[in-house]
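Model it.
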Amino acid sequence: MIDRRLFAIAKKKTLILQVAIRCISLGLSLYIWRTLALQLSETLQGSPLELSFFGVILLALIGKLVLIRLSANLTDQASADLRVALRTKVMEKAFRLGNTSRQLPATTLAQLSGDGIEQLEMYYAHFLPQLFYCLLAALILFAYLVSLAWLPAVAMLLCVPFIPITIMLVMKIAKRILSKYWDQYTSLGTRFHESLSALSVLKAYDQDEAKQQEIAADAQKFRKATMSLLSMQLNSITIMDIFSYSGAALGIGLALIAFQQQQLTVYGVLIFILVGAEFFLPMRQLGSLFHVAMNGISSCGKIFDYLALPEKSEGSITAWQESLNSITVDKLDFTYENQQAPALQAISLNLKKGSFTAFVGKSGSGKSTFAQLLLNQLDDYQGRIQWNQTELRELSSSAVLDKGILVNTKDFLYAESIRDNLLLANPQLTDDELWHLLDQVKLSAFVGQLPEQLDTVLEENGKNLSGGQRQRLILARALAASAELYIFDEITSGVDIESEEIILETLKALAKQAIVIFVSHRLYNVLAADQIYVFKDGRIVEAGTPQELEQTSDYFNAYFTEENRQMRGAIDHEG
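Modeled.
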């Protein structure tokens, strides 16, 4: 019932205060019952009713209300602190993992850091304090009752363990169900997000109704799983109620027998009647919190499993002051985790500042993997990658990010102004410098015609821009970073011819002052490069200038001929 990993990050002081406040509140309740029982017993014996009795009860009730409010404030603060702490850990982990094979899908990550952590509020703020309070409350009440009559007090105490035993038995079943429950929940969310993102595609192929039925069927399975959990919870509550009421009835019955045998006074009987239900109430409340607490424990397991994922090793150099002039790669091999076939084999090359280098090859040839390795985004490679004379492994992620940047079609534009999206790369830029960046990518005229110009707010991911405008704005933001190594991965994919020419012209100009690598599967894009490396099956099969490769490379010419044939076919088809 206690997850050690969650308990380790919980604020023990807050937890102790919550339990202490509940115990003090229980003490006030005992005082109220004692006062009430004493007044009733005296009244039954003919004594007049004292008016001060009502004042004492009122003051005690006010005290309990104050304690309840204080406990609620502590609970809110404790749960808020925990949620912030866990979400911070999850986001920091997500940034450290980056775009690696270990990273969770975005929808799963959002569900864990959203609903998953929200589920922990009930566990941490309510269930956990109630668990410790139950143990203390049972002992406090037993110590008070046993001083009046030991037999009914012992009988009620012996009935209390049946409730946690029931909880633990149900927990064994619930763990298996909840694991599948969360898997179904995250899977359903992922499929829904995918379908929503691809709605235009589903509409185009008239598959939206079929996908709707598929998601509806998955939702129905999830609903049934939820109902099964609720049914199990209700059944367990029924069992706990049986033990609670039976234990209270047994204690009261034995107290009445003791009274009949003159072993207990009227006051003692009244105390047992008033306290009997309260004796089992804390444990009963714990049982009612069990279902949501188990949800929290299940989501907690998923969250901590994610936080425990191995990360890429960090270098010791956090501030690398050298100017990046060259990159040397020697006999580089790399294999993805859980894959047998190597993604890269025996890669060796030299990259110089002021050169425009292109990586080409069909999809899956290893060029994008190699680009990630050059920016230290993947780990466990064999061979050497040196920035100048420094081994890349020795540099921290922050040191690499200060020098290099990867730009691809997955880059995101926020639903903020054009200015804010550009300043994301360099907050110190002035408006004149921002206009210069837009002029470099031939967007200044377009932005200048907009009513709000730089203050024009984009839709999410630049949906109010054309594909070419979006990519050129992403390129402008990359230029704002003033990096020394730029890797552009398929940045011209899906853009119009005009934008494609503008992007390539901008990259060629940028290559005069930085190391620029352009990754593409289309050869006609890279004919202006200073050096081309052709990738095939994780190896570099050809290297040279475009002119050299056109004359000497059979693979290059075969690829180029096939590409031209496909382009002519597409043009004929459009015609």
